[in-house]
Amino acid sequence: MTFWVFGYASLLWNPGFDVAERRPARLNGYHRSFCMRSIHHRGSPEEPGLVLALDAQTGAHCDGLALAARPEETEAVLAYLRERELVSSAYLERLLELETDEGPLTAVGYVIDPDHVQYAADLDLEEQAQIIARAVGGRGPNTEYLWNTTRHLAELGIPDAELQWLSDRVRCLAAARLA
């Protein structure tokens, strides 16, 4: 049985494992949102950044990729993902039902825990931009995360107007800091 992972943000451009197959996929009932404060990878406890999460929302959907692990690497990939994604327990590991052109499939995915202290769904886009423009964490600047994700979604033909607006706004903020 193939082990699938749903990629909707950094897993698109940095899966961290050897991907055997990629399929465009849609997850219903969730949307991609900068609703998780990052205190490890893209921010710090003193100055949290923001990362994308799957946030439950009636009528919403999130387009991304179903990523298949090599069969002999399934256990290692799951262990790696748990270490990477469950570092602060703000994400919940779930089996998600995805739609693909080849038919439905079940994939492991990580959704935000709306009861976790790092949940930040109430921030408007300007607040998000201000945070992302200045935050830096263990995996680098928050800006890099935003720009890489936005670029890869565009390359995959997956439009995301909010991410594009944030990307443009953060570039303006970053340029103003250098001026």
Q: Would you write up a description of this structure?
A:
This protein is 32% helix and 37% strand. By secondary structure, the chain is of the alpha+beta class. It has one domain (4-178): Hypothetical upf0131 protein ytfp, CATH 3.10.490.10. The strands form two sheets. A five-stranded antiparallel beta sheet has the order 1-3-2-4-5, sandwiched between helices. Helix 3 packs across helix 5 (161-178).
Quick take:
Keywords: Lyase. With 179 residues, the chain is of the alpha+beta class.
Which characteristics define this entry?
globular, GGCT-like, 37% strand, two-stranded antiparallel sheet, glutathione-specific gamma-glutamylcyclotransferase, ChaC, EC 4.3.2.7, alpha+beta, glutathione specific gamma-glutamylcyclotransferase activity, 179 residues, 5-stranded antiparallel beta sheet, Hypothetical upf0131 protein ytfp
SSE sequence, one letter per element: EHEEHEEHEEHH
- Cα distance spanning the termini: 54 Å
Beta strand %: 35-45%
The CATH topology is given as Hypothetical upf0131 protein ytfp
Q: Biggest sheet, open or closed, and with what strands and sense? A: 5 strands, antiparallel
- The residue fraction in helices comes out at 25-40%
Query: How many domains?
Result: 1
Using the alpha-carbon principal axes, give the shape: globular
So how many helices?
A: 5
CATH architecture call: Roll
Lateral strand order in the biggest sheet: 1-3-2-4-5
Query: Mean pLDDT, as a whole number?
Result: 95
EC number: 4.3.2.7
GO biological process, one term: glutathione catabolic process
Pfam families: ChaC (PF04752)
Keywords: Lyase
